[in-house]
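Protein fold
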Amino acid sequence: MYAAAVVLDPARPVAGLADSKLLDAARRERIAGAIRRDALAWAVAFATVEEIDAMNILRASLAAMARAVGMLAIVPDDIVVDGLHLPPLARPCRALVKADRLVPAVSAASILAKTARDAEMVSLDAVFPGYGFARHKGYPTADHLAALEALGPCAIHRRSFAPVRAALALRR
């Protein structure tokens, strides 16, 4: 689970910002480069598989958001997060549903988080061959679920995820 925080520079707007899910991979990569080059500050953080299993995906994502904000080189004036829930921050912030489509800095953060996660999944494809992580990026596609059933879970599969629990049950 990856999260990012971005403080955009009003003097250097980044063209093409949008919800990362609405952009193809090549466009996301190009825009991510522009964000890293032109933003006043940016940071990417993640929650581990163990954290997700221990605290659930929502709490882990909020923890990753808080880490990303805490890693910023400058303190943002306004902290907006996508969704309904607020991360545990000492500074005031606000949650906004669909912020990744409405707030440019949140769009930028969604792009950085997605490109970082995708890059990690490509790396993990070499470590855990046969699962197709470079193709499906860990999302529960038919191919991923078939590999999970055939190979069983590997170290990066969340034990709290229902298809992983089912695959583990079949192996007992």
